[in-house]
Amino acid sequence: MKTLTMPRLLGATALCGLLLAAGMPAPARAADPTPVSVGLIAPMSGIYARPGQVMRMGAEMAVADINAQGGIKSLGGAPLKLVVVDSGDSTEKSKSAAQRMVADYPDLVAGTGAYLSSFTLAVTEVTERAKLPMLTLSYSDQITGRGFKYIFQTSATAGRQADIALPIILELAEKASGKRPKTVAILTDNTAASLSSVKAMKDGLLQKNNLELVVDETFTPPLSDASSLIQRVRSRRPDLVFFLPTVISDAKLILEKMNETNVRIPVISFGIAIAEPDVLNTVSPQLLNGVMSAVANWGAKGQEKLIQRMKTEYKEPWMTQNAISTYGDMWIIKAALEKAGKADRESVAQAMRSLNEGPTPYFPGGELKFDDAGHRVGASLTIIQWQNGVPVTVYPENLAIAQPIWPGKK
């Protein structure tokens, strides 16, 4: 076989130029595979912007990792292309953003979002009509309770989380203090996920766990003053306070007012508002120490490299559920695309419905498999606790980074 010398190479180049000038096609070359568009719709502005930005970080990390490993192999190595849409900070803005998303990006094959359950409920009314498969970490039981076919919930629902968390928290309290809690206060905002958790408690979980509800208060975020709420807690002296905020400023007000009025009662939260990094901008680590929260997901044992990347690449102090879950969602979309072998919505949705990938490394409990309603099969939760200025995973044991402590106990 003859070697193509420089004169021959120049001659070949000149020949191609002559062919093009004469209107004849040049020799064909393999085209790069078309990128596959996947969406993230989450708050990038307004009072919930910080969690939305963290979701974007998780999505960007996953897309980079998937593309670095060869993209979607069943589509010839097609890379993922992330499309980010700002849902805004209200249900009305979220619905409008979803309408723009499906109109402006008709090539989207799947998406994830939208942080608050209230936003997710609004967004998925639109994406369901567009037959766009959507993954979500949002907790509300209503999300997968509407008979929709294109919504997939990776978290345990709010009601299920409360069912799992209450016995664990009570057992921990009894072991640490020698006394089982008997009375509780509930302080909750009126967002969908918070109300779902509270509804499950009131509809039987408190009675099932022999707990008496002595304070029951619902507020609209953001709070301007927590004095009246804490005064009711102070007057009734419950054994536990279940606190369900979604805005950091509300968490700050409640904890500061409890400290100011010398209300020394263990605080158990649901959701991550109490554990966002920005909490430390306004609340001291001493005030937070011992506060627990039941969350759908969190950076845990086995994810140390991802957590370190968050710290290095994005200067984040830890990996919240918004980052790790959105990271995991991109891998679910990849798995569905590989199974589908087609970059279209219906094929991806059908593939998601039939996924059966076994245990998943990015979500607590269960499998990478969805039931007919769109619930991830066997989904559990993590319990995190503020210890020495950092919210760490303390349950389940196989994912725990630290041992739990009971507030007030050394």
TrEMBL record:
Signal sequence bounds: 1-30
BP terms from Gene Ontology: amino acid transport
InterPro entries assigned: BCAA_transport, Leu-bd, Leu_Ile_Val-bd, Peripla_BP_I
Keywords, comma-separated and alphabetical: Amino-acid transport, Signal, Transport
Domain Leucine-binding protein: residue ranges: 35-388
CDD domains: PBP1_ABC_ligand_binding-like
SUPFAM superfamilies hit by this protein: Periplasmic binding protein-like I
Record's keyword annotation contains Transit peptide: no
One Pfam family, short name: Peripla_BP_6
Listed PANTHER family: LEUCINE-SPECIFIC-BINDING PROTEIN (PTHR30483)
Similarity annotation: Belongs to the leucine-binding protein family.
Protein name: Branched-chain amino acid ABC transporter substrate-binding protein
Organism: Bordetella genomosp. 8
